[in-house]
Amino acid sequence: MDVIVPDEVACYKDERTLFNQAVTVSVTRRLATRGMSIDLPDAPTEVIPAISDRIVLGGKLDNYSGFLPGIFENLCRHWSWVVHLYPGRVWRGAEVLAEILTDKGSGRPEKLTEAWILQQNPSVEKLLESARDFTVPNGVRLTSEALDALYGFVVKARQDLAGTLNTGLTDPETCELMLTRDVKEAVRLTLKGLAKRHQITIPPA
Questions:
Q1: Is 72 within 8 Å of 83 (Cβ atoms)?
Q2: Would the pLDDT of 87 be above 80?
Q3: CA atoms within 13 A on the CB side of 115
Q4: Rounded distance, CA 147 to CA 142, Å?
Q5: What is the DSSP letter of 89?
Q6: Do the beta carbons of residue 196 and residue 168 sit within 8 Å?
Q7: For residue 184, what are the contacts with CB-CB under 8 A and spacing of at least 6?
Q8: Which H or E run includes 127?
Q9: How far is it, in rounded angstroms, from Cα 150 to Cα 50?
Q10: From the CB of residue 131, how many other CB atoms can be counted at a distance below 10 Å?
Q11: How many Å from the N-terminal Cα to the C-terminal Cα in the chain?
Q12: Could you tell me the residue ranges of all domains in the chain?
């Protein structure tokens, strides 16, 4: 049964409210990635274009409010809607993705399993239990389904990293971008990739 929880009485630890938060976060990421239009009363419709490029830095692996880490879900969305990703390695979420994408192994990484997700963030288990009682909107992927999609992307990227991510760089340069801890080098490679993809000249800093 669906229940509307008014803002003025919402308890942020209530099961329904936590589920609503997780769904809202997922839908927001999807809409931000693909673009959307907002009809405003007595005003022109506001059009928000789809994302063309996104620099990925940081990312929580625990204490997040969705069905899986936001940085993981964003990667799924980027793949689904063919936009472009420049992975970084500043906080742990981006670091984990960089390690997974540059690993030449053929097996599924443990960090792309539901068991690992639940170990990092036990609150996800409560969300999955709630999903059996409440309606999951179309387009919202629960943890296992989202991880399967992400693993499919990883398999493809391991075969052609620069081409799959469409970074505008070579494979070695893309690996360097994802694994470097040198901020200047990361900026240099990002600007190089952007300039090549968009056929523009970026003046030196």
A1: no
A2: no
A3: 3
A4: 9
A5: -
A6: yes
A7: none
A8: helix 123-130
A9: 20
A10: 17
A11: 56
A12: 7-198
* pLDDT tens-place string over residues 33-77: 888 888 888 888 888 888 888 888 788 888 898 999 998 988 877
Residue 134, H or E segment: none
Q: What are phi and psi of 55, to 5 degrees?
A: -90, 120
Query: Judging by DSSP bridges, how do beta strands 46-48 and 84-87 pair with one another?
Result: unpaired
Decide: 56 and 97 in contact? Cβ < 8 Å.
yes
For the beta carbon of residue 175, count every other beta carbon within 10 angstroms.
17
CA atoms within 13 A on the CB side of 108: 13
Q: For residue 48, what are the β-bridge partners?
A: 36
pLDDT for residue 24 is more than 50 = yes
Q: Residue 46 phi/psi, 5° resolution?
A: -95, 125
| Gap between the Cα atoms of 89 and 135, Å rounded | 36
Helix 123-130 vs helix 15-34: angle between axes, to the nearest 10 degrees?
90
